[in-house]
Design goal:
Strand 1 and strand 2 form a beta hairpin. It is built from 1 helix and 2 strands; from the N terminus they run ββα. Helices cover 58% and strands 11% of the residues. A two-stranded antiparallel ribbon has the order 1-2. The longest helix is centred in the middle third of the chain and has 41 residues. The N and C termini lie far apart (65 Å).
Length: 71
Amino acid sequence: MSEEKVTIDGKEYAAKDLSETAKQNLISMQLVDQKITQNQQELAILQTARNAYANVLKEQLPKGKKSKKVN
């Protein structure tokens, strides 16, 4: 069975050679990476919903009137 390796900044390390503190920091970093991915997916969903609401709103606006710029 092959030894577990960890790659950081393009360099491979044997997991067994990491200190306990380094292992805990690695776990924390992996959890943060997962949370970032989840948040990016949620943002994509929210942006899609916003675009859908904007499209529906555009269809509901009065037709043929000059638009006023609102600050």
